[in-house]
Design a protein that fits this description.
The complex is a heterodimer of chains A (581) and B (548). Chain A is an alpha+beta fold and 581 residues long. Helices cover 34% and strands 17% of the residues of chain A. Chain B has an eight-stranded mixed sheet with strand order 9-8-7-10-11-14-12-13. The chains are: A alpha+beta (581), B alpha/beta (548). Chain B: It is found in: Nucleus.
């Protein structure tokens, strides 16, 4: 997975400024990364991910010019130098307290150690004597990928010797970020995509879903590969129970779908294990049909595996496979006539025109709320007219094809709608701006017992209200007087979910450098992000009384009277057991 | 035991529709009180219950016969089990022993976690067939008790994490979810975990990498045929013998032994790759070790550098003294993949040494994170005079108006008291007690009585203000998470080959005179980089060492 860079995939370039650029690597194109320069796509194709490349200065020698892989030792040269200096300082014993890497100056008269500070530093823009024009001119001359230029800039800083070690490091780094002509190629996967959208694109589009929250959603929803799960029919034979099938309501443009699909192993077209499949995908998109090169690149790391994988898999037609998988599936319930899964394009999946070799084609099912709740109102669910064979034969091929297409579309919609209405799903994941009450009201009954429910919200208030619906006192009141839900008092059946919990997580990033270790000083504000988790349970028929009252009540507490006064009332007797359910 | 039976999927991964015998089930009592139990049809421990195997909880006794075969997630009523007289069996005394029950419950529950262990041991020892004639009487049908219930849930790594027997510090859900996310642990990944500890991370990792069982699931994990598609696998290392054996039993009880290969090995001293086994081919590594930098030298592509890998280390002699001569070094890493690593250390000093070593060993994209997580509780905050005498509420005035009304009333009563000297009669401390408007003229006792009576009519669950607050005990620091990536090895020859392939293509294109060769992919100008540079105080110093 994500070993080497294949043609036409999306990759992310991390630039010296720490920004990410996500783009598709189309062979035989030139890629420009703004002020850092340009390079040929072919110079990174077939190379491994995670390497850092340096854009070499243009020379006449066309073979030499291009990119250079920067070895790790060079990347960390500054840092390791600093470490050596620091440890040398300890060994000498001359510098006291040098362990933290701070640079000191020894004052000789009384042996006192004084740290160099910025006390004497004068802020003066004129300290840098080199003008922007001169820098530009230098850049045009060729700069040794920025290294020489940075060295020159440092040289021409008149007050460089006044800087403390830290200030100098910061100054050098700032210049490096600006002029170093390097970039690192990273694979576009769910963590990277989330990070990129959160930091550089539009966080609102993904409901400000931070990586750590997305990870938490993934764990609590218990989503995992379900391809080997058994297909169990329900006792009454009306549907399936389990089978590694999850329901999703996703308004993050497909990010949550992608994250769950990643956990189920259906997000990426097979790559390193069966490179031939990817080559096939590439092949479809390769306009000129020249796949020798693509195959060649793959062979480097998969000698011989191609043939076997290819022959084992008959190539099925697109229509027969679409949304057909019985297990290991995600079913997206969407509010518009088409689901918005636009982010899946980064994984080479287009939901409006799915490629047959992509695993999402058969494992991702979509159903609209209308189809789910009232299929008879949906035109797609109505069976198209059946035309007898003899009449069909008289059709022109175009019309016949059209007829079959309609029939297949209907069959697909019917099977997905019927399956989703039958329920028995292994879990529900919600990241939606819609009222969670209404979603859960319809979706929770579709879950099997023991299924996990996870609702993400950027703000805590909707989830607090949701949790309050399942509060102990409301649940007991409901048990006492079960009414048809939803009603004013009980928007949801409070007995269907167990252990409702709201939680949040936040990741703090640290800078770890010799003598300069601390948390990063800025982070992202905005929505905190919370998840609501609970487990679907099957309440027992009839009244169930709880027992046990382990929280000691104060003797003489007046509340005791209140309990005594309504002894018959399970509302009270139940409090002991369900206190913290 | 999993080995002796026909293959069954792990209940963690595919629990099936109903709870089955010999499967792990979680008895959910309360949110923080869950008892993992191995469901048994027979009571191997001969605890003497008429109903066969019974799990006792503070909410009642649950014979396993009432749990086996019910759909997962079901609410199960407690049964009236005679817990008192079984010790005195044979005396003919069959008293109910209800009074002793409560004490017993508490003990049993505390021992909940230990109990499983015991059960496992018992199971190991008993090589008996389920039907031992004469020894095990047919269990009596359970009689439903009038009160008490639990929910029976299929186990998940999350519920196991909250209920597992602690042996070491546990990696909790917020941490392990983020770690697995950053490690790119996906179906088909091969993950190394060093320092298995209590096994919390092990279970979550097994779920993350699972993409099918090996073809011979009953056998212990064996070298796979090379042409099979790669199956997800966790290689877990634990050097503590007792923890190792406990985890081994747990994994087999949980049906995870085909997926988790548990090694009893000190990775710092002897490395990860077992000498006589095929290469581990790991793609992700999780280190939960006291000195992770000592293990890092074994996680290299080629023979570990004998020159001391971490100059700032005060004990540069530690490597190579314990490890055998590295004549035939075999890398545990997958040669055709980038390797993602996470090291989990509570102290910043450990982090610094680890990162220093990682830099020397050529790891990329090193970053350090810390996860802080909290659970929130929601409650209805009820304030007002109508709450007087009730529990968990604030009986002070809810509004200024309410306060004024009360003050006026007290004022009036005082006036009346002085006007009609001593005629107040049944005041009973009324001068000090507050009263809502309708309550004027009542004694405190009457007032409280009235409030209590009124309570039955009220819908207190939707009264008051809904508030949200953090749970009382917060985990403010668990550990620092150091992440790093080791790119695939890329030699000069590889580069030459790639250059030839992709360069040739380009040259050919250009010769054909196609214009396509000149297509330019413009990436928007890097405006953000410019503005970054100006933020002096917040410059992130690690240029390459940031998030991926």
């Amino acid at each position: 997975m994500h070993a080497i860079i294949f043609p036409n995939v999306y990759v992310a370039l991390r630039l010296p400024s720490d920004t990410l650029k996500v783009l598709q690597i189309v062979p035989n194109t030139t890629i420009s990364i703004g002020k850092y320069g340009t390079f040929q796509a072919n110079h990174i194709l077939g190379r491994p991910y995670h390497l850092t490349f340096e854009i070499l200065d243009e020379t006449d020698d066309s073979v030499r010019s291009g990119l250079r892989i920067v070895p790790a030792a060079e990347l960390y040269a500054d840092i390791t130098e600093g470490e050596l200096k620091t440890s040398a300082g300890i060994d000498d014993g001359k510098v006291i307290d040098g362990k933290d890497g701070v640079e000191y100056e020894v004052v000789t008269e009384n042996g006192e150690v004084v740290m160099r500070t910025n006390c004497q530093t004068v802020d003066d823009p004129a300290s840098q004597v080199m003008s922007q024009e001169e820098i530009e001119a230098l850049k045009r001359e060729g700069t040794g990928s920025g290294k020489d230029l940075i060295a020159k800039i440092l040289e021409s800083h008149s007050a460089l010797d006044q800087k403390t070690a830290f200030a100098l490091a910061k100054y050098t780094l700032r210049k490096a970020k600006k002029y170093m002509r390097r970039f690192t190629v990273l694979p576009v996967d769910v963590p990277l995509l989330t990070h990129w959208i959160m930091t550089e694109k539009e966080p609102m589009k993904i409901m400000e879903l931070r990586e750590e929250m997305l990870a938490l959603v993934g764990s609590w929803s218990n989503v995992h590969f379900g391809g080997s799960n058994g297909v169990y029919s329900r006792e009454d034979g009306t549907g399936q129970v389990g089978g590694g099938r999850w329901l999703i309501v996703d308004e993050t443009g497909g990010l949550v779908v992608a994250a769950m699909a990643e956990k189920m192993g259906i997000l990426y077209p097979p790559e390193s294990d069966q490179p031939s499949e990817l080559i096939q995908t590439v092949h479809e998109e390769f306009e000129d049909g020249d796949t020798d090169i693509a195959n060649g690149a793959a062979e480097d790391h998969s000698s011989g595996k191609n043939q076997s994988a290819q022959s084992n898999r008959p190539k099925p037609t697109r229509q027969s496979l679409s949304m057909s998988a019985p297990t290991n599936t995600l079913t997206v319930i969407h509010a518009n006539s088409q689901p918005n899964l636009s982010l899946l394009k980064y994984f080479l999946f287009d939901s409006t025109n799915p490629s047959s070799s992509h695993p999402l084609n058969s494992h991702l099912k979509t159903v609209s709320w209308l189809q789910l709740l009232s299929p008879s109102d949906d035109a797609g669910y109505a069976e198209p007219e059946v035309v007898p064979d003899d009449i069909l034969k008289s059709y022109k091929s175009g019309k016949r094809g059209n007829y079959y297409r309609k029939r297949r579309r209907w069959e697909r919609i019917k099977s997905v709608v019927d399956e989703s209405r039958a329920g028995g799903y292994d879990g529900l994941i919600v990241a939606s701006f819609m009222d969670p009450f209404t979603i859960l009201h319809h979706a929770v009954p579709l879950l099997r017992g023991g299924a996990q429910v996870v609702v993400y919200s950027p703000n805590v208030e909707p989830l607090a209200e949701l949790a309050d619906c399942y509060s102990t006192s409301r649940r007991t009141a409901f048990l006492n007087n079960p009414l048809e839900v939803p009603n004013e008092d009980f928007p949801l059946n409070p007995t269907l979910l167990l252990a409702p919990t709201i939680q949040t997580a936040r990741c703090r990033n640290w800078q770890v450098l010799p003598g300069r270790t601390h948390p990063l000083m800025t982070g992202r504000g905005g929505a905190e992000g919370y998840i609501f988790t609970a487990t679907r349970v099957l309440p027992a028929e009839g009244k169930v009384e709880a027992r046990g009252r382990f929280k000691r009540r104060k003797a003489g507490d007046i509340g005791k009277g209140y309990e005594a006064s309504s002894k018959q009332d399970p509302v009270n007797s139940i409090t002991g057991q369900t206190e913290a359910i | 035991m999993a080995e002796t039976q026909a293959f069954r999927p792990s209940p963690f991964l595919d629990p099936g529709p109903v709870a089955e015998a010999d499967s792990l089930a979680v008895l959910h009592l309360r949110r923080d009180l869950q008892i993992p139990t191995l469901l048994r049809e027979q009571d191997e421990q001969q605890e003497g219950y008429d109903e066969g195997k019974v799990t006792n909880t503070r909410f009642g006794s649950f014979p396993h016969s009432t749990l086996i075969g019910v759909p997962w997630g079901s609410q199960v009523r407690a049964s009236a089990v005679d817990t008192g007289s079984r010790g005195r069996r044979g005396n003919g005394k069959a008293s109910k022993g209800e009074k002793r029950k409560r004490d017993g419950d508490g003990l049993e529950e505390e021992a909940g976690a230990k109990r499983i262990k015991k059960e496992v041991k018992a199971n190991e020892n008993s090589t008996v067939t389920p039907d031992r004639p004469g020894m095990t009487p047919t269990p009596k049908a359970a009689v439903t008790a009038s009160t008490g219930f639990i929910h029976i849930l299929p186990p998940t790594p999350e519920s196991w994490t909250t209920s597992l027997p602690h042996r070491t510090q546990v990696v909790y859900t917020p941490d392990y979810s983020y770690i697995l996310h950053r490690l790119r642990a996906r179906p088909g990944s091969v993950l190394i975990e060093a320092g298995a500890g209590s096994g919390s991370f092990t279970h979550a990792a097994a779920r993350a990498v699972f993409n099918g069982y090996p073809s011979s699931p009953n056998a212990t994990p064996s070298p796979r045929a090379p042409q099979q598609p790669s199956l997800g696998r966790v290689h877990s290392f634990e050097f503590h013998a007792q923890r190792h054996s406990h985890l081994l039993t747990e994994l087999s009880m949980h049906g995870l032994s085909p997926l988790v290969h548990l090694h009893h090995r000190d990775v710092c001293a002897s490395g990860f790759q077992p000498p006589s086994q095929p290469p581990l081919n790991a793609t992700a590594i999780f280190l939960d070790l006291p000195a992770p930098w000592l293990a890092l030298k074994h996680l290299t592509r080629s023979s570990p550098p004998n020159s001391k890998p971490h100059p700032p280390s005060p004990q540069p002699t530690t490597p190579s003294t314990t490890s055998p001569p590295e004549a035939e070094f075999r890398s545990p890493l997958n040669p055709h993949s980038a390797i993602h690593l996470c090291s989990f250390s509570p102290c910043i000093e450990q982090v610094q040494r680890t990162i220093s070593t990682l830099r020397h060993l050529g790891w990329h994209s090193i970053s350090t994170d810390e996860i802080s997580a909290k659970r929130l509780e929601t409650r209805r905050e009820r304030i007002g005079l109508q709450e007087e005498g009730l529990r968990g509420v604030n009986p002070s005035a809810a509004t200024v108006d309410e306060a004024v009304t009360r003050l006026r009333e007290v004022e009036g009563r005082t006036k009346g008291f002085y006007a009609d000297d001593g005629a107040a009669g049944v005041t009973g401390g009324g001068a000090t007690g507050p009263a809502a408007g309708a309550m004027s003229g009542l004694s405190k006792q009457q007032r409280l009585e009235k409030i209590r009576e009124g309570l039955a009519e009220r819908k207190v669950w939707k009264e008051g203000r809904l508030v949200c607050r953090a749970e009382l005990e917060l985990k403010t620091h668990t550990s620092y998470l150091v992440f790093a990536v080791l790119p695939m090895e890329w030699t000069e020859e590889d580069e030459e080959r790639a250059r030839e392939r992709w360069g040739m293509k380009k040259a050919a294109r250009e010769r054909e005179g196609g214009v396509e060769g000149a297509v330019m992919v413009e990436v928007e100008a890097d405006v953000k980089g410019e503005s970054d540079v100006k933020m002096e105080g917040n410059v992130k110093v690690e240029a390459d060492v940031k998030m991926e």
